[in-house]
Amino acid sequence: MNLKTFPILLLTICQLIIFSNLIAQEGDHPKPATLKIGATAPDFNLPGVDGKNYSLKDFSSSKALVIIFSCNHCPTAQAYEDRMIQLTKDYKDKSV
User: Residue 84's CB: how many other CB atoms inside 10 A?
Assistant: First the structure.
């Protein structure tokens, strides 16, 4: 081994160690439980943009419930705001 190939070999070994650690850590996280289609959602208590708190019981007469988690300072969320408002208007009379 000469002095020119040593740094390349050392860098390659370091990259392999880092990459293998990332792969090993990835498997440590359990997958979150998800609901099956048609299952009843667990009860919740969330603040609305109107300052009121809402729970699942508040929507018991609705056919469906859509909850949008958004970030008002995100440019992408801001770009979709008009669409979300229109969807709300379109489905309000349909018990959604």
Answer: 13
